[in-house]
User: What shape does this take?
Amino acid sequence: QVQLVESGGGLVQAGGSLRLSCAVSGRTSSYYAMGWFRQGPGTEREIVAFVSRGGNYPYYTDSVKGRFTISRDNAKNTVFLQMNSLKYEDTAVYYCAARETYYGSSQLGDYKYWGQGTQVTVSS
Assistant: This one.
């Protein structure tokens, strides 16, 4: 059974940075394209970024382009989301997800495995 565990969330002031990690266990992460999603208060879960199995072809939603970076270390079975210049509107629970294909996707339904989420709160 594949398990995803997020960490690295917390409370940060606007303009600050956080680095989220997603540890993959049960099967090596190199089998999966990985995505980061988020769900803010009263909103639907939305794509933030995804990356292919090989670590290339990154995608970012427009609101985080130039501020967030997705990366992965398959040797450590871990995927990262570096978040810089955080804004109040980035406040959300952040989830990582795994898809058993080479390329990632922006669609929630395309991901088979999900973590429990980590809370990111940005104070204005």
In short: The mean pLDDT is 95. The first strand starts at residue 3 and ends at 7.
